[in-house]
Design goal:
The longest helix has 45 residues, at 80-124. This protein is flat. It has helices at 2-15, 80-124, 132-135, 138-178, and strands spanning 38-41, 45-50, 54-59, 66-67, 72-78, 181-183, 188-191, 200-201, 205-208, 211-214, 217-223, 229-235, 247-252, 255-263, 266-267, 272-274, 277-283. It has four helices and 17 strands. The chain is of the alpha+beta class and 284 residues long.
């Protein structure tokens, strides 16, 4: 019995003996993961809007259809309010076009005045290297100033023309919004189509003081790409660890069996305070 006891004890001790393992010290990368929650942002859609009001007479597209910029989306038979709105927009467009034409015409007049002033100065008092006494001559000063003023006015006319052209572009876009023909603003795939043939549509007017604002009505959207942005609210303690370009793994509540990858595009370091708690919005 004593012999058996000592044999059992020696075997049990060998099993419980602590084992040590050694390794060479090396440098490695410490990976820290942060878990944040947020919402998907609309980053790949362009709204199709209109200010037309009336009855939809034709719809040329359906959801999921690929379109190009300028393709017809729908036709609207304008009602009285729609026709009036379109007439006002067309009047503004014609006025802007007339102003642009006048600005271009004025450019030639100013160019002629510039040449006349320059030639008069050069033929009368224009000298390559005038002395101080010649510069103090009243006639020299008058003709030189007339030339410089004509030159400045001519150069400034380019800004007037650019402004007039911008007004024409703005008026043209406003006129298109009131048109009974609705077209695609860009290339992409139709989505969120909410109109059908024989449907009544219309935009509303709001009056503030002496001005009236017309709201746009969204009838569909165009999906322009596959990129999706996720906006997350980062806790204050985690914000210093987030840098632009870092990799991210994304899961969606609606797609629990799938995992997506992305990267940090930016973080608002100013922060937003809600109920006394500061968070830092980040875009992935």
């Amino acid at each position: 019995v004593v012999v058996v006891f000592f044999i059992y004890r020696s075997l049990t001790a060998s099993k419980n003996r602590t084992q040590y393992q050694t390794a060479q010290v090396t440098k490695g990368t410490l990976v820290v993961s942060l878990t944040e929650a947020g919402q998907v942002s609309v980053a790949n859609k362009v709204s199709i809007v209109t200010q037309a009001s009336g009855i939809v007479s034709n719809v040329y597209v359906k959801s999921g259809q690929t379109v190009n910029a300028g393709d017809k989306i729908a036709d609207v038979t304008l009602d009285t309010a729609g026709q009036q709105r379109q007439a006002q927009a067309y009047s503004s467009l014609l006025s802007a076009q007339n102003n642009l034409q006048s600005a271009n015409t004025q450019l030639y007049t100013l160019q002629n005045a510039l040449f006349v002033a320059n030639q008069k100065f050069m033929n009368d008092k224009g000298i390559a290297n005038p002395s101080d006494q010649q510069k103090s001559d009243p006639v020299y000063i008058e003709e030189n100033d007339t030339w410089l003023a004509a030159e400045a006015t001519y150069e400034n006319q380019a800004n007037v023309i650019a402004q007039s052209q911008a007004n024409v572009n703005n008026s043209s876009l406003a006129y298109q919004l009131t048109s009974g023909t609705i077209t695609a603003p860009t290339n992409g795939v139709i989505g969120d189509l909410i109109i059908t043939k024989c449907m009544q549509i219309g935009s509303s007017n709001t009056t503030a003081g002496s001005s009236t604002n017309t709201s746009n009505q969204t009838i569909a959207s165009i999906i322009t790409g596959n990129a999706t942005a996720v906006s997350v609210s980062v806790a204050e303690v985690d914000a210093p660890q987030i840098k632009v370009g870092q990799a991210a793994t994304i899961t969606f509540d609606a797609l629990p069996s799938k995992t997506f990858t992305g990267k940090v595009m930016g973080i608002n370091t100013t922060g937003a305070v809600t109920s006394g708690v500061t968070t830092y919005p980040a875009i992935i």
